[in-house]
Amino acid sequence: MTHPPAVLTAPRPFEEPALTGSPTGSSWRVSSALPVSYSVRTCQDLLDPGNDDLEREAFGGSSRRRLVIVEQKVFDLYGARLLAYLDHRNLAGHVVSLAADESVKNQHLANRVVEAIDGFGIDRKREPIVVIGGGVLLDVVGWVAGSYRRGTPYIRIPTTLIGLVDAGVGIKTAINHNGHKNIIGSYHPPVSALLDPQFLATLPSRHVSNGMAEIAKMGLMCDVALWKLIAAQPGELIRTGLGSTDLSIRADAQEILSRAIHSMLAELQPNLWEKDLQRLVDFGHTFSPVLEMAVLPELLHGEAVALDMALCCALSNQRGLLADGPLEEIMSTLSRLGLPVSHPATTPELLVRGLAQATAHRGGMQRIPVPVEPGSAEFLEDVTNDELVDALTRVRRIARDL
Questions:
Q1: Where does 11-101 show beta strands of DSSP type E?
Q2: How far apart are the first and last CA of the chain?
Q3: How far is CA 377 from CA 103, 169, 212, in A?
Q4: What is the CA radius of gyration of the chain?
Q5: Are 42 and 2 in contact (CB under 8 A)?
Q6: CA 242, chain centre distance (Å)
Q7: Which is the catalytic residue, given 105, 172, 181, 217?
Q8: Which of 271, 170, 149 is nearest to 214 (CA)?
Q9: Is 172 a catalytic residue?
Q10: What does each of the 402 residues of the chain score in pLDDT, given as a tens digit?
């Protein structure tokens, strides 16, 4: 089934003002507004030669040439189908495959993307780059696209669950540097994001679990119906690749995907450039950046997020916000999704360091989002080191009983 696109548009805050100052003056004020509009669209079987979605969305316009950058593992699985699609539809797609994972999400990989663009000889206004892969490659190509000639359009086609519901639908781009996750980046929206859940059929179960962490995040923060769908059958969602291999669970899986994407976009749209640093989508992202980089490549992003969420739920419980029953349900559901809730690397020292870095990133305030109950949240401030130790102890005790 092909769904109509969800169009994400940042409201124009004011009309374009005139330049202030005089021709003979010594001071001027320059003001400008930057409206943003891009489509996020769910498609089915983009690489079917009979499906015109990919041609229409990615190869339209006065030029039909495209640089197509594909993650190496995705090319191994789908390269033959992609090349057959391009040939069948007489599309001038030049395909480049690159290995991409968190351990190489750096300037070196970005430079390889630049070299591919230079080698192709792109027309930066008429020939958007097409990127097909997981969140790492989407982030890196997006970062290069925003920088190359100060702005080149691109189209995202995520192939992982975390890409479908998180990395593929926003406007942030990034690379890692100097031991810091996503420390260098920009806001560069794609022309469009094409979401094909059929890529999930070949996704390893660990990576399905990885993406479910971000979906669970949105359910716990702002969509109780989404959380209930997850909590009702976490094991089945993982076993079937979110319904990609089992018709009996597909309807629920499609609703889970739609709700997750919608709730993410609804939270992002009013705050695309993060002018407001108090964000529900930062749940699970207070301690996880430091943790993920500290043990790289041991933990996937969603696994680090799950560990962070478990700790923040315990903090909420200690503050009297989240009751014991919901806390235990959350921990159990995360575990049944194949996600860790405890890890030896989550030491008090690491948590203190993570909180300090998050506080610096959030304008000098902690702004820690925590659930009060599934679908409802508050923000914590002034969390102490002793609270972190107590929460960590509580999480480890619950984890032993799961």
A1: 36-42, 65-71, 92-98
A2: 38
A3: 33, 23, 19
A4: 22
A5: yes
A6: 17
A7: 172
A8: 170
A9: yes
A10: 444 444 444 444 446 678 888 899 899 999 888 889 999 999 999 999 999 999 999 999 889 899 999 999 999 999 999 999 999 999 999 999 999 999 999 999 999 999 999 999 999 889 999 999 999 999 999 999 999 999 999 999 999 999 999 999 999 999 999 999 999 999 999 999 999 999 999 999 999 999 999 999 999 999 999 999 999 999 999 999 998 888 888 899 999 999 999 999 999 999 999 999 999 999 999 999 999 999 999 999 999 999 999 999 999 999 999 999 999 999 999 999 999 999 999 999 999 999 999 999 999 999 999 999 999 999 999 999 999 999 999 999 999 998
Q: Are strands 172-177 and 180-187 parallel, antiparallel or unpaired?
A: antiparallel
> Rounded to an integer, what distance in angstroms lies between the CA atom of residue 264 and that of residue 167?
10
Cα 27 to Cα 279: distance, rounded to the nearest angstrom: 37
The reported pTM is 0.92
**Residue among 60, 55, 204, 49 at smallest CA distance from 134:** 204
- For residue 317, how many other CB atoms are within 10 A of its CB? 22
For residue 344, give Cα distances in angstroms to 158, 204, 375.
32, 24, 29
Residue that is written with structure tokens 């478990």 in the block: 310
> Could you give the CA distance from residue 185 to residue 114 in angstroms, rounded to a whole number?
15
Q: What are phi and psi of 157, to 5 degrees?
A: -130, 95
∠154-264-334 over CA atoms, to 5°?
Answer: 120
What CA–CA distance (Å, rounded) separates 17 from 29?
10
Six token digits for residue 114:
């630049």
Q: Which residue type does 217 have?
A: K
Indicate the residue type of 172. K
d(CA 145, CA 191): 11
| Cα diameter, the chain | 76
